[in-house]
Amino acid sequence: MLMQGPIRVLTERVMSRGFEPTVGRLLEQMRSTVSKQPGLISVETLGDAQDYHHQVTISQWRSQKEYQAWRDSEEFKKLSNALSEVLDQPNCKTRILQAPRDDIFLL
After folding, report:
1. Where is the ABM domain (predicted)?
2. Cα–Cα nearest to 8, from 34, 42, 52
3. In angstroms, rounded to a whole number, what is the distance separating the alpha carbons of residues 36 and 72?
4. What is the dihedral of CA 81, 72, 37, 6, to 10 degrees?
5. How wide is the angle at C-alpha 20 spanned by C-alphas 86 and 10, nearest 5°?
6. SS3 breakdown of the chain: % helix, strand, coil, rounded to 5?
7. Domains, the chain, ordered by start
């Protein structure tokens, strides 16, 4: 079931040592390509302060449907396959998140 309304997507990747320039180039290509996708609001990549091989990308989308269209695109598949070849863990972890509908206080 698709979520309604805006979503955020958290993607975690661990790059293989020695492939930093390749991963950087591929992530820049991914960022350039995704920035042209309908529904993308923002995207940011952060590196772990303790282990720079661990990176997290947070993207915000108008809808899960538009995010799924990006995931189903040939551009995404091509770049993801290239990235998988230079990551310690070939499959990145991806989580789809959404703000609670009700205004509640969460600890």
Report:
1. 1-97
2. 42
3. 15
4. -120
5. 70
6. 35, 30, 40
7. 14-89 (3.30.70.100)
What the block records as the tokens of 62 is 């108008």
Q: What is the pLDDT of residues 15-27, one digit of tens each?
A: 888 888 898 899 8
- What number of residues does the chain have? 107
Q: What is the DSSP annotation of 35-77?
A: TTSTTEEEEEEEE-SS-TTEEEEEEEES-HHHHHHHHHSHHHH
- Residue 103: both structure tokens together: 């205004």
| C-beta of residue 45 within 8 angstroms of C-beta of residue 26 | no
Q: What is the pLDDT of residue 104?
A: 61
* pLDDT, tens digit, 9 for 90 and up, residues 66-107: 999 999 999 999 999 998 888 887 778 999 999 877 666 655
Q: Which residue has the tokens 């695109």?
A: 73
Tokens of 97: 């998140």
